[in-house]
Design goal:
Helix content is about 65%, strand content about 5%. By secondary structure, the protein is mainly alpha-helical. It has a single domain, classed as Winged helix-like DNA-binding domain superfamily/Winged helix DNA-binding domain (Arc Repressor Mutant, subunit A, Orthogonal Bundle).
C-alpha cells in the first residue's frame, strides 16, 4: 500500500500531480505514455497488484493505439513483461531491470524533495 511504502507513496503522489496539472493547463502539453505506464506498473508492483495497459490508458487518457505501440516498445527493450504483442488486456509487470531503474528514479525524487523542503525551511 502507498501508505506503508515511501516509494509507493511518492509514486502515487507523482501520478496524482501529473493528473492534476491537466486541470490547470491544456492536457496536450503533457504527453508521456511510456512514463505513465512505467509509473503505474511501478506503483502496482509496490502494492502487489498487476494491471493491464488498457487500465493505464483509460486512467491517463491515452489512446489505445498509442498505448499499444509504447507497450510493444517497452516489451522489446525488456522493461515490461507481458505477451510482447501490445495486447492492452494482457496482465503486465515491470522487469527486474525496469524495477531497479524506477527505484533509482523514485529514490532520487525522495532526495530532491527532501532538499527542496530543507531549503524552504532554512530561508
Amino acid at each position: 500500500m502507498p501508505g506503508n511504502d515511501p516509494s509507493a507513496g511518492l509514486t502515487a503522489s507523482i501520478i496524482k500531480f501529473r493528473q492534476y496539472r491537466t486541470n490547470i493547463l491544456p492536457a496536450e502539453l503533457f504527453s508521456e505514455p511510456a512514463w505513465d505506464l512505467l509509473l503505474e506498473l511501478f506503483l502496482a508492483d509496490a502494492e502487489g497488484r498487476r494491471i493491464t495497459a488498457r487500465e493505464v490508458a483509460e486512467k491517463s487518457s491515452i489512446s489505445p493505439g498509442v498505448m499499444s505501440r509504447w507497450l510493444q516498445h517497452l516489451s522489446k527493450i525488456g522493461y515490461v513483461i507481458g505477451d510482447g504483442t501490445g495486447d492492452l488486456d494482457d496482465m503486465l509487470t515491470l522487469s527486474a531491470q525496469a524495477l531497479q531503474r524506477m527505484e533509482q528514479i523514485i529514490d532520487r525524487a525522495h532526495i530532491l524533495h527532501g532538499e527542496a523542503s530543507y531549503s524552504r525551511t532554512s530561508e
